[in-house]
Design goal:
Elements (H helix, E strand, L loop, with lengths): L19 E5 L4 H11 L5 E5 L11 H17 L4 E4 L2 H6 L1 H12 L4 E3 L2 H9 L6 E6 L1 H6 L1 H9 L4 E6 L3 H6 L8 H15 L5 E4 L8 H6 L6 E3 L2 H14 L1 H4 L8 E5 L3 H12 L6 E2 L4
Parallel strand pairs: 1-2, 1-3, 2-9, 3-4, 5-6, 5-7, 7-8, 9-10
Bound molecules: D-glutamic acid.
């Protein structure tokens, strides 16, 4: 008779290791990729920017979900087992459906992670945080994802969310450092501080916004902590891989990065340099 107790229950992962997929609607995810690579330089990465259909920030839930899911499936087809949605709008509008409905049906071993949860964990573990301001795209603000996640972890924190619809176009048009940008950077910070003058922490809840960091600091009163997501997402991913050795084994290690864009490669290369501070060479991809 076969004794079932002797059968090993270790999950089987027959596939070869693949690169870690990093997805964004466009360029903003490059700030997250930078942060991830600072903490985890040994892994291989495949970055996908859906620049042809960006910005996502003002698009409907259904469309952001559909575009994001198509991108995730593309990264899976390129051998990624783990995909990071390095976009707050996609994390807010698509992550939960992909994690709860799509992955269990498609492939229970692959994983998709977002950037909102690690950001919220970072601020709720700090005892000095009690009034948080979220600056993000209209889509992320409309989803109330930050308010809901913070409420779950620390209902005592007061959250104020303000949409900054003009910040992404400023950055994408290479106007982030121009004097003309000052007016629009100040405008949304003033709106936030008018709504809650006791703000002690501001989360840059859009992956593009660290590019405006100098100006954001310039117009924010001293003493207010400003949180960009790159490093904290890197730390959180390092922690995730330590806690999930079965996934860590599926992430190839060679220290490489490849860039894919749904737009024109030359255009992507030129603006990506603003985010990465070094030249790159991307390839065009269709993700339909
Ligand atoms: N990267 C997106 C985010 O973090 C902003 C850009 C867009 O609107 O597509 O929300």
């Amino acid at each position: 008779m076969i004794r079932l107790t002797n059968i090993t229950r270790t999950p089987v992962f027959p596939e070869a290791p693949g690169r870690i997929g990093v997805f964004d609607s466009g360029y903003g995810g490059l700030t997250i990729l930078n942060g991830i690579r600072r903490h985890l330089p040994e892994y291989d990465y495949l970055y996908l920017g859906d620049n042809a259909r960006a910005p996502y920030g003002s698009r409907s839930f259904d469309l952001v979900y559909r575009f994001t899911f198509e991108a995730v499936k593309t990264l899976f087809r390129h051998g990624c087992h783990l995909v990071i949605l390095a976009c707050n709008t996609a994390s807010a509008k698509a992550l939960r459906t992909i994690q709860q409905n799509d992955l269990p049906r498609m492939d229970a071993h692959r994983r998709v992670l977002g950037v909102i949860r690690p950001t919220v964990e970072e601020i709720t573990c700090s005892p000095s945080t009690s009034h948080v301001g979220i600056l993000a795209t209209p889509g992320t603000v409309q989803s109330r994802s930050y308010s809901l996640e913070i409420e779950k972890l620390d209902p005592g924190i007061n959250v104020t969310e303000v949409a900054c619809p003009l910040w992404v176009p400023l950055i994408e048009n290479n106007e982030a450092h121009s004097p003309g940008a000052d007016y629009f950077v100040k405008k949304y910070i003033d709106i936030l501080l008018d709504r809650d003058p006791e703000i002690d922490t501001i989360i840059l809840g859009c992956t593009h916004y660290p590019i405006l960091m100098d100006k954001i600091r310039q117009f924010t009163p001293e003493g207010i902590r400003i949180i960009a997501q790159g490093d904290l997402v890197g730390r959180s991913l390092a922690d995730y891989l330590t806690r999930h050795p079965e996934m860590e084994r599926l992430c190839s290690k060679g220290g490489s990065v490849e860039f894919l864009t749904t737009e024109n490669e030359e255009k992507f290369n030129a603006l990506a340099e603003l985010f990465l501070h070094h030249p790159i060479s991307s390839s065009h991809i269709e993700i339909l």
